[in-house]
């Protein structure tokens, strides 16, 4: 009888598992409403990691005030923090990280449930994961560059043991948070990893993403669409983003894919001005089947 693994070709959709990794929480009194954080002091979080590159100015295209030219040299993959295992804490937790993908908003502050989580998150920057209580939680975003003006206030149901990325994106009624689930991904091959693509550019048309010279394709991505995971060979891979209608290549990036990992390629930027369309690669906190 043929092996199921041998019947699975590169580039096919990867099975999504319902299981997620156990997540640690800091020790403490469960009755206290303390925000769990990968930072040493949740009341005074450290600066979030930044993408390299020069940030310019300008206001072009269909989204407010461009904040840079979008040209970043090698894409940064943010590491997954190693967190302690919970001991005797009966609260229910999930993990969440934040991405500033909104053109025109250079530096934002993010609060969750009334607790300040992030200070000065720049455009194109992504935080590490935070451990947070599950349930209905309010996420508020303020503008650090404009007297902490309120930019958005959203309420999301965060499920126990789930893992999320919340992206701040442009929209027809102004910017808002968009919540994505960082699913687990099963991959039994020894030389591959799981990769998916997320379309977060408000004014970009329908997009296609291809890798391995077209052998792997993420097709017909619309705004706020997150593809399924696909199997991609490890090594230095080129990802080409094209207009799905015309087939015109818009940009390409190269990314070092490590074995047995899960990645998301976030497509951000202004399709008609600065900062131009670019990709932010991030390693997802998800359990790969061994």
List keywords for this structure.
mainly beta, 4-stranded antiparallel beta sheet, 290 residues, 19 strands, 4-stranded mixed beta sheet, 41% strand
The chain-level structural class is mainly beta
Q: What Rg is obtained from the alpha carbons, in whole angstroms?
A: 19 Å
Q: Spans of 5+ residues with little confidence (pLDDT < 50)?
A: 1-9, 14-85
Number of DSSP E strands: 19
The ordered H/E elements are: EEEEEEEEEEEEEEEEEEE
Give the strand content: 35-45%
Helix content class = under 10%
Average residue pLDDT: 77
Number of helices: 0
Organism: Candidatus Dorea gallistercoris
Pfam families: DUF4397 (PF14344)
Protein name: DUF4397 domain-containing protein
InterPro entries: DUF4397
Provide a compact summary of the structure.
With 290 residues, this protein is mainly β. Helices cover 0% and strands 41% of the residues.
Describe the overall structure:
The chain has 290 residues and is mainly beta. The protein has one domain (9-289). 0% of the residues lie in helices and 41% in strands. The protein is built from no helices and 19 strands. It has a 4-stranded mixed beta sheet with strand order 5-2-8-9, with no helix packed on it. The protein is globular. The two termini are 22 Å apart. The model is unreliable at 1-9 and 14-85 (pLDDT under 50).
Produce the secondary structure layout.
Elements: E1 16-17, E2 93-100, E3 107-112, E4 115-122, E5 130-133, E6 135-143, E7 149-158, E8 163-169, E9 176-181, E10 184-186, E11 192-199, E12 207-211, E13 216-221, E14 230-233, E15 235-243, E16 249-257, E17 262-268, E18 278-283, E19 288-289
Parallel strand pairs: 2-8, 10-19, 11-17
Antiparallel strand pairs: 1-10, 2-5, 3-4, 3-6, 6-7, 8-9, 11-14, 12-13, 12-15, 15-16, 17-18
């Amino acid at each position: 009888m043929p092996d199921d693994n041998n019947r699975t070709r590169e580039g096919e959709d990867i099975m999504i598992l319902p299981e997620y990794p156990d997540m640690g929480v800091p020790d403490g009194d469960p009755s206290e409403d303390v925000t769990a954080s990968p930072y040493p002091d949740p009341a005074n979080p450290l600066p979030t990691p930044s993408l390299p590159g020069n940030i310019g100015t300008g206001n072009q295209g269909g989204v407010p005030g461009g904040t840079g030219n979008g040209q970043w040299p090698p894409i940064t993959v943010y590491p997954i923090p190693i967190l302690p295992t919970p001991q005797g804490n009966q609260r229910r937790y999930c993990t969440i990280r934040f991405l500033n993908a909104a053109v025109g908003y250079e530096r934002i502050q993010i609060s969750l449930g009334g607790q300040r989580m992030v200070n000065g998150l720049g455009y194109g920057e992504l935080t590490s994961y935070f451990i947070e209580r599950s349930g209905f939680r309010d996420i508020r975003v303020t503008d650090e560059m404009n007297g902490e003006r309120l930019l958005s206030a959203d309420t999301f149901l965060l499920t126990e043991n789930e893992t999320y990325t919340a992206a701040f994106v442009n929209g027809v009624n102004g910017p808002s948070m968009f919540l994505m689930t960082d699913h687990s991904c099963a991959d039994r091959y020894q030389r591959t990893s799981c990769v998916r693509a997320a379309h977060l550019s408000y004014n970009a048309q329908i997009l296609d993403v291809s890798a391995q010279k077209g052998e792997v394709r993420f097709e017909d991505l619309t705004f706020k669409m997150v593809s399924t995971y696909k199997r991609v060979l490890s090594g230095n891979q080129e990802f080409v983003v094209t207009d799905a209608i015309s087939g015109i290549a818009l940009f390409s990036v190269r990314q070092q894919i490590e074995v047995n990992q899960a990645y998301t390629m976030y497509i951000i930027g202004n399709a008609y001005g600065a900062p131009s369309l670019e990709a932010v690669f991030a390693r997802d906190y998800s359990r790969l089947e061994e």
